Amino acid sequence: MYHLKKYGLFLFFIWPQWLMADEIEVTMHYVGPTEGQVWLGVQQGLQEANLQGGFLGQKYQIEVVEPDALETTEIETVLLLATDDDYIMKVAQSEQFAAIPVINLISRSDELRESCLPNLFHITPSDEMRADALAQWQEKNPDKPANVQSWHEDFVKFAASQLNNRFKKSQGEAMTDQAWAGWAGTKMIADSVVQTMQYDAEFMLNHLKTDLVFDGQKGDNANFRENGQLRQILLLVDNDNKIVAEAPLRGFKGGLDSLGKVTCK
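and the corresponding C-alpha cells:
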C-alpha cells in the first residue's frame, strides 16, 4: 500500500508536466564491457527507466561506443564509462567533453577523485572511502575482521531488498557492487530527466553538480561531493558473507562525509 501511495503521489506531481510534454527519446552513451555485472546493472537501470518512462512519454536507450570511436561520437546527454583509469582521465580532460557529464561507474581510484575535474562523477566508492569505513569498524571491533562493500545481495533496508529481487529476476544472478554502480549511474540520469523534463548534456552536467536528488536504495537521497564522488553508506561484511554493520558507524563525526575526501582543497 505504501508503494501505491508513493507512486500515486509521484504521478500527481508529474502528470501535468507529462500532459504538456512531447514524447522524448534519451540516449545515454556507454564505453565498457557488454557482459558481466556492470553491464547487467546498466541494463537493469535502462529497463526500469523505460518502465517509468512509459507512463511519461519518455524512451531511453544505451548506445555502446568503442573506445577508439568516441572522438567521432556526438554525446547528447551523458557518457557512462566502465574503463581503466587512464582512459577515464583522458576523456574527462578532453576539451571535446568539457560540457558533458562523464560518469565513472566502477573505478575506485583516489587519484581520479583528487583530479577534481568539473565534469567527472564517480558512482562506486573510492579506495579511501572503503579504508575509512574499515578503520571505523576496526576501532570499535578490533578482533572482528570484515571487508567493505558498496552493495550486497542480502541488503534489505531502504527498499534494497526490492531492488535485489528485481535484479535477480531480470538478470538471473545476484546484484554486486559493480551491478549496483551500473544501475545507479543509468537510473539517476533517467530520474533526473523525469524531475526536470530536460536532457541536454550541459543542463545535465549542472543538475548533477547542484540539484541531484537520487534514491539509490541506500538511505538518504544521494548527491555528489565537490570532488565528484557520490555520497553513500558502505556495508561491512564478515568472513561468512554476512552484513554486520553500515558505515559511517555511530559515534563518528561527519556522517557520510566521514568516509573519504569531500572537497577539492
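(Above: one complete record from the training split.) The CA atoms of residues 25 and 59 lie 5 Å apart.
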